[in-house]
Specification:
By secondary structure, this protein is an alpha+beta fold. The protein folds into 3 domains: 77 residues, Thrombin, subunit H, CATH 2.40.10; 113 residues, no CATH class; 92 residues, Arc Repressor Mutant, subunit A (Orthogonal Bundle), CATH 1.10.10. The protein is 42% helix and 15% strand. The strands form 2 sheets. Strands 1-2-3-6-5-4 form a 6-stranded antiparallel beta barrel. A two-stranded antiparallel ribbon has the order 7-8. A hairpin with a 4-residue loop joins strand 1 and strand 2. Helix 6 packs parallel to helix 8 and helix 7 packs across helix 12. The radius of gyration is 25 Å and the shape is elongated. About 1% of the residues have low confidence.
């Protein structure tokens, strides 16, 4: 027999299409990390759908409160799985053994992409396609956290119709910055200017090697602060965009040697940084003297090292002066991520 309350509910829905309920399933081996960085807690995910999950936990957050969850595989080492998805969720209900939460997803996240991730998250094998989807979702959610109200611009850069290599390069930069910031106690409060973020992704996706991607990731990480107003790295985007892989190796070595050899960390000391032809080969992996000399000359043109290579005399020169300028050291510092200890990225 239908009660009066049920009749009223039915009458109120007349003329209003009801959204289809998202299919729910019981995943095999999925968990969610929650709590503070210093005291994290892990809860088993009992039910999951594209709209939310039921988390087995002793926590009883207030209804409507937004919490941060890290979706991951249960009993699987972090190094063995790419699934580490930080997502916001709103508390919706309580159960005897846990809490029901609804996902809060950014408008720039494709619904089918998220649904596919939820459906395959507990798959024992992570194929290349699965890993790509995981990386894309992680990157979009990270950008949304950095630019909560204006994330569409950088997200559109990331999800635009680019070739595979440029897209993967942007993913490496974004996730590299996320990793650099992950251990910070106030990571959830970090924000970035969307124009700076979009500029870093646009300019940083042309080099596909590990070193330049780490430089761009460091620049993105150091562009974050608690109010997202930092524009100080704007000029460095254009400078770094000109630096090739070979030139990056030379600049990083120059700045590393200068940092190791002086106590004056705020400026450039008088001592020059000079390396031999053999040392230059070790740094760049290039045996072509003219190519290495040309890259030194370009770094001089960019204003990143103090002295140009002398092409005016014939014969092989055995030494390279790669003393960095203040701009070169500033670029090195910011690309290392100003929140990090010296040498942490490039050691």
């Amino acid at each position: 027999m239908i009660t009066a309350k049920e009749w009223k509910n039915w009458l109120r829905t007349l003329g209003y299409p009801q959204p289809e309920r998202a299919p729910r399933r019981n995943p095999n081996g999925l968990a969610a990390m929650h709590g503070s960085v210093s005291s994290p807690k892990l809860g088993h995910i009992k039910i999951i759908s594209r709209t939310g999950l039921f988390l087995q936990t002793s926590e009883r957050w207030p209804i409507g409160e937004v919490v941060t969850l890290t979706l991951q595989k249960e009993n699987v080492a972090a190094s063995d799985s790419e699934l580490h998805i930080d997502v916001h969720a709103r508390v919706a209900s309580y159960g005897e053994d846990g809490v029901g939460l609804g996902f809060i997803l950014p408008p720039g996240l494709d619904a089918s992409l998220w649904e596919h991730l939820v459906e395959t998250a507990d798959s024992p094998e992570e194929t290349k396609d699965t890993q790509f989807i995981i990386h894309m979702v992680r990157a979009i959610l990270f950008l949304y956290r950095l630019c909560p109200s204006r994330a569409l611009a950088p997200i559109h850069v990331l999800t635009g119709e680019l070739d595979q290599f440029r897209t993967e390069s942007m993913l490496a930069i974004t996730l590299g910055a996320e990793k650099m910031l992950a251990d910070e106690t106030d990571v959830d409060e970090m924000r970035a200017n969307p124009g700076i973020v979009a500029g870093i992704l646009k300019n940083g996706c042309w080099e596909y090697n590990d070193l330049t991607q780490r430089l761009w990731a460091g620049l993105l990480a150091s562009s974050c602060n608690k109010d997202g107003t930092d524009l100080s790295n704007h000029d460095l985007i254009e400078v770094l965009g000109q630096v090739t892989m070979n030139q990056a190796h030379i600049l990083v070595e120059a700045c590393r040697l200068w940092s190791d050899g002086t106590e004056d960390k705020d400026g450039i000391g008088e001592h020059p940084i000079i390396i031999s032809h053999e040392e230059m080969i070790r740094v760049t992996g290039m045996y072509d003297l003219y190519r290495n000399a040309t890259d030194v000359a370009y770094l001089y043109i960019y204003g990143l090292i103090k002295n140009n290579y002398d092409f005016s005399t014939y014969g092989t020169k055995s030494m390279f002066d790669i003393t960095p300028t203040p701009l070169g050291m500033r670029l090195f510092k910011e690309c290392r991520g100003h929140l990090l200890e010296p040498g942490k990225v490039f050691s």
